[in-house]
Amino acid sequence: MLKILVCVKQVPDVDLVKMDPETGNLIRTGVPTLTNPLDLNALEAAVQVKERYGGVITLITMGPPTAESTLREGLAVGGDNAILITGRPFGGADTLSTSYTIVKAAEMKGSFDLIFCGKESLDGATGQMASQLAERFDAALISCCFSIDKISGGKIRATRTLETGREIVEATLPCLITVEKDNFYGRLPSLKAYLASKTAEITMYSENDIDGLDHEKIGVPGSGTIVPRIYPPELPEPGQIIRTGSSRSDVGTLLALLTEKGSI
Amino acid sequence: MQKSGYKNMWVYIEHDGQTATPVGLELCCEIRKLCDAAGDRLYAVILGDLCETEVEKVKGCGIDGLIFVSGTGYEFFNTDAWANAFAVLSRKYKPSAIFVGGTINGRDFAPRFAVQLDTGCTSDAMELAYDPETGDIQFIEPAVGGKIMAVITVPVMRPQIGTIRPGTFRYAPTGAKENIEVIHEEISYDPDAIRCRHIDFLPDEADPEMDIAHADCIVCVGNGLKDSEHLERYRMLAKLLNGKLGCTRPLYDRGILPYKLQIGQSGVMVKTKLYISFGVSGAVNHTAGVDAEVFVAVDRNPDAQIFRYCDYGIVGDMDEICDEMIEQLQAGKA
């Protein structure tokens, strides 16, 4: 029976986040949230492993209390239990302190054979969590996994998608895996699982519930990086907009300009 | 941590024994400027054997020193030996910053040794600046889907670690310095302790349609595309212009086109003569990946940010404009 951990994150819909041009602050109020799309591919990979080899899937996330809905979404498609790490002291964490916090909280449930997480998040998009979690779990790392080919005898064989081809690797367990979408598109929940997920119990951890948690290593104090300043991207002056009254003559004008420039 | 005890900047040179990956050279050229601003020396770090002509190329990027690492564990790339080597080297020499190309391998091991060293790691900076007041590097990058630019720093910990995407900076070698310091270090990693082992490599079959980085013309479709049934006309337009089809990230996310056609900072950086976008909003993450002599944008939203980047723009329905272009080009050729 494999013990599987899947790390998920609730993210704001970045397409709808705006920046206040006066204050330079991000306007998040009223912006809908969603489960980070690539995390759903990671969860799907975990569910496929569970179906093939047997196992128990624990979902874990760190975030505001609303992140509970992301865990319930995961419980509906194959997760067996879930952990929500939430509390003000965790806020403002970068990947260094987030990876520390997640590993300390996961250890409360024992050890894991396989850990899955998304390649990167929609909002932070550092893509660093996988590698840093692997280090803190003292685990092997298989990133960009295209297919999971075999798990047996404490080893996993998998195919990765690299820049110029596919690599076949063999790793010892515990192993952390990030996946490509190709073979791991998420699934819809069954009605029964969906209903069960609504009332499933979720383990909640605050900063005082996690054994041996060094409070200097979480949230902002534990972070290696800070963001001292944000500003709107500098935009060049707009180009020449062709407005001649009809698509036909707009295109005609454009093609004439491109021909003149030698572009076509 | 006393950050004043940390000095000089390092660039990791990724290679396969025969060739150095371009990003290492690009980084040496860029970090040279940062070192000059900071009064630091620039070292290139090479793990395992790299052929002499390529080492000369690295030297040509204005470095002050080279650190060669030999020992066991470097026959094939693995995050265990790589992260260990950098952690050992960094503890010994205390560099102020370490830069690693944001390839798949680079992104796998750099954040890992950052944890071993308990320090901050940033990814995907598009600009780098040195702040003389704090002595910190400013890693400047688009955030929140390109809506904002964020300045990121590592204010207390050292070394400052950054992975940088290939193609972000230019390879513009300034020439080799006269006295380049050469350091040899033996750092062996027990091959039996490597947790993820390389078994085999199956190179992709060469598909010219997937090789868009240097295409003369690119027709790029964005999230404005309704569905994959509407895609064919853009392929046809690309063909008529002797160009290639590309896309933005949402189309890859929607499963419509493969990752290799995704243009932008987290995909392919393209250099082209003519770039025509259809239904692309113009997020910085995408436009940062486009280096075009002539930039044309077509979108239904007159306020779309893409029109700030274009030389010529047409406001209208993307499918209709594309069809019109095909018709007029075909008529012109007939």
What does the model show?
The complex is a heterodimer of chains A (264) and B (334). Helices cover 27% and strands 30% of the residues of chain A. The relative contact order of chain A is 0.17. Chain A has two domains: 216 residues, HUPs (Rossmann fold, 3-Layer(aba) Sandwich); 27 residues, no CATH class. In chain A, the strands form three sheets. A nine-stranded mixed sheet of chain A has the order 11-10-9-12-8-1-6-7-13, sandwiched between helices. Chain A has a two-stranded antiparallel sheet with strand order 2-5. The radius of gyration of chain A is 23 Å and the shape is globular. The mean pLDDT of chain A is 95. Chain A starts with a strand and ends with a helix. In chain A, strand 9 and strand 10 form a beta hairpin. Chain A is an alpha/beta fold and 264 residues long. In chain B, helix 5 links the parallel strand 12 and strand 13. Chain B folds into two domains: 191 residues, Rossmann fold; 126 residues, TPP-binding domain (Rossmann fold, 3-Layer(aba) Sandwich), CATH 3.40.50.1220. The model of chain B has no long low-confidence stretch (mean pLDDT 95). In chain B, the strands form three sheets. Chain B has a seven-stranded parallel sheet with strand order 5-9-4-1-2-3-10, sandwiched between helices. By secondary structure, chain B is an alpha/beta fold. Chains A and B meet through strand 3, helix 3, helix 4, strand 9 and strand 11 of A and helix 3, helix 4, strand 5, strand 8 and strand 11 of B.
